[in-house]
Amino acid sequence: MKYLFWNTNKKNLDNVISDIITEKSCDIISIAEYGGNINDLIILLNRNTLTYYKVNDIANQRIVIITKF
């Protein structure tokens, strides 16, 4: 299982994040202080027939969790 955590410092880095996730085959991704639209990132990730989902916010809304599971 591969895990990626990245604090984007409120920047939109969708293409960079997507490339890393695809290249490294990450299973769980946590993004802190995300500056983009999470739905756009998930669409970008799923363009290669992978299926990623956003996990519902639990307590901290500053961290977004995306997973294959």
**Distance between the first and last residues' Cα:** 11 Å
Show unreliable segments.
none
What is the N-to-C order of secondary-structure elements (H for helix, E for strand)?
EHEHEE
Domain tally: 1
State which percent range the strand residues make up.
15-25%
Strands of the widest sheet, in order across it, are 1-2-4-3
Give the helix proportion (percent range): 25-40%
Can you count the helices?
A: 2
Q: What is the β-strand count?
A: 4
Rounded mean pLDDT is 91
Estimate the global geometry from the Cα principal axes.
globular
Give the helix/strand class: alpha+beta
Q: Tell me the radius of gyration.
A: 11 Å
- What kind of sheet is the major sheet? 4 strands, mixed
Task: Give the gist of this structure.
The chain is globular. It has one domain (3-67). It is built from 2 helices and 4 strands.
Mind explaining what this structure looks like?
The chain has helices at residues 14-24, 38-45; strands spanning 3-7, 28-32, 53-54, 63-67. The chain is an alpha+beta fold. α1 (14-24) packs parallel to α2 (38-45). The chain is globular, with a radius of gyration of 11 Å.
List key phrases describing it.
69 residues, alpha+beta, 4-stranded mixed beta sheet, 2 helices, 4 strands, 28% helix, globular
Task: Tell me the layout of helices and strands.
Blueprint: E1 3-7, H1 14-24, E2 28-32, H2 38-45, E3 53-54, E4 63-67
Parallel strand pairs: 1-2
Antiparallel strand pairs: 2-4, 3-4
Helix pairs in contact: 1-2
